Amino acid sequence: MGSVKVTELQTDSDWRAVRGEVEAFEKECEPNTYMEWGYQYANWSQCPPEGRCWLIRLFEGEMILGMMILVESKSHKFGVPITSLRTMDFGVMHMPPFLMRKGYELEACRALVKARWKIAFVTGASLVKLYKINKNSSLPLVDTLAKNNIYTRVSDFNDSYQLRLHDGIESYLKTKKRKSLYNIRRSTRLLQEETGEILRLERLRGEDLLSNDRFMKYWKCFEDLRSQSWQMVEARKISQENHDRLVNFFRVAVEGWDTKGWLDLVLLWAGKKLVAGQLNTVTNHTQRVILMAYDQTFKNCSPGRVLFFKQMEDAYDRGDRTIILGGASEAGKAFWANQIESTLEITWVLGGARAKAWSVWDQFNRRRAV
User: Which CB contacts under 8 angstroms, 24+ apart, belong to 227-233?
Assistant: First the structure.
């Protein structure tokens, strides 16, 4: 018989108390850069949410089938307060709906549906809102919700730009326009002429990189380069505290990726000068681009484009077959992508009068919009 355990994560001690349990379960699931303890902890500790966080575990006997870390969010409909549980999604793309044991995805979804009343009772929430969810991995949950007649709204969130390299680099390049290939070669030539140096790619990938002095030296170079980006400049304009939170967010997240062996830092040098850098994670032959930065002095030479092309060839040789670029910055990412997938926003009701009222209101709005 399935059961559920709901734990509030209110303090740093609460988070650290469940770390071992969560990370042990992660090994039983498909790896995902964002749905892991370290990244979720970075969300909570460096970008503090307004609401409470909850860890939800779903069981079949003694075996854990699934886990979710959600944060509460409050809104009003018709003057009535509605509490939702939502994913923490800072900078996140292409997530599964929650951590599910490999081979037991459908059972985990069924256990979640059965547990919805208890989740609502313990947390006081009426809705669950999942953002930026990978379409394929969402199918067991959406199907289970439909079969149990639970009101659900599924809509496109945004586009996920991707490269599929299974047929090799040469086959990929044949799909690109001649002008695009010309622009890559031209940017490479201009960057070499501007710097007066031969371009050199360096990559550090693997486990326990943070204990490597060479990696830490390069990481500092990458952080210095990123400090020039418009995102960091704007963050500093808001406040130094806001800027420091962004810096610390990725420092915390990198620690989790490093212990799992997912970390990947690639740098483009012109002689001894760093002109561009890219932070990725790599799991199961899939590279997720996390951050890119380049020297603004050479922006007219498109150093980020040169870096990406060179790292893409190198990544393929290392076994990467899919590169997920993420959403936003559509023009730059569309230049490389040969596949675009929609990520989803999935909202469903837990139970109770307020959940029912919300579903009636939502159905009315959807009919009116048609």
Answer: 228/293, 228/295, 228/296, 229/293
Lowest mean pLDDT among 128-132, 227-231, 366-370: 366-370
Do 312 and 194 share a structural domain? yes
Rounded to whole angstroms, the Cα distance separating 304 from 291 reads 11
pLDDT at 51 over 80: yes
DSSP code of 189?
Answer: H
Distance, in Å, from the CA atom of 34 to the CA atom of 317, rounded to the nearest integer, reads: 25
Looking up residue 286, the CATH number of its domain turns out to be 3.40.630
Q: What is the DSSP letter of 101?
A: B
Which pLDDT value is given to residue 94? Answer: 78
Is the pLDDT at 329 greater than 70, yes or no? Answer: no
Helix locations, 227-274, DSSP H: 230-238, 240-260
Backbone angles phi, psi at 299, to 5 degrees: -60, -30
Q: At what angle do helices 37-46 and 240-260 cross, to 10 degrees?
A: 170
CA-based diameter of the chain, in Å? Answer: 69
Averaged over 19-28, what is the pLDDT?
97
Contact 311, 325 (CB under 8 A): no
Structural domain of 115 = 2-158+343-369
CA distance linking residue 175 with residue 165, whole number of Å: 11
- Number of compact structural domains in the chain: 2
Asked whether residue 176 falls in the same domain as residue 282, the answer is yes
How many whole angstroms separate alpha carbon 44 and alpha carbon 49?
6
Would you state the pLDDT for residue 322? 96
